Every structure is written in C-alpha cells, then in structure tokens.
Amino acid sequence: MSGVKMIFDAESGNPQRGGPGVHPLYASIDHIAPKNTARGHQIVCYALNDLKGHLPYNCFQALKKTTEWQSLMKKWKAQAKKNPDDREAFKQILHED
Description:
The longest helix has 16 residues, at 67-82. Helix 4 (67-82) packs antiparallel against helix 5. The protein is α+β, with helices and mostly antiparallel strands. It has one domain. It is built from five helices and two strands, in the order αββαααα. 43% of the residues lie in helices and 18% in strands. A two-stranded antiparallel ribbon has the order 1-2. The radius of gyration is 13 Å and the shape is globular.
C-alpha cells in the first residue's frame, strides 16, 4: 500500500502495557476488503491497516486515487526513509490537518 520496508520483528508487534504500542511499520495481515476473505489478503504496515480498517472498501478504493492520499503516502515514505524508528513522527503524519 505504501511501498515502504516493513518491520517483521515480533517485539515491534507486541505492545506492552504502558509501552509505545505496535510500531507503525510493523507488518500485519490485512483483508483486502474489510471482513471479507473473498478478495484475499495482503501484508500492510500496522498503522495503515488500522486507518484502512475504519473505512468501507469502496470508500478506501476511491480515497487511494486522490491527491491527498498520494501526498500522505509520499510523507509516509519520506519518514520511513529518514528515520523508520521514529514512531511519533508516523503518528503525527496521520494526524495532520
């Protein structure tokens, strides 16, 4: 979905109480269409899977075509290249106005 290198380290995917939570780039298995196995599965980073999971499939398909989504993915990729360990930077990208 984003084209960034994902993290497969199990410790990054197991949140600890009071800890930093699951790493935004941690690899997760995703239904291509939420709650529907007919369209198959894909591996996507945790934070984008979470974001996508709150939208109906058709809405997400339309969103991916927008300049806003493409801009978000450009920022996501730039952060992954700059510092993939900065969890807060990824969270800020997803919460920008």
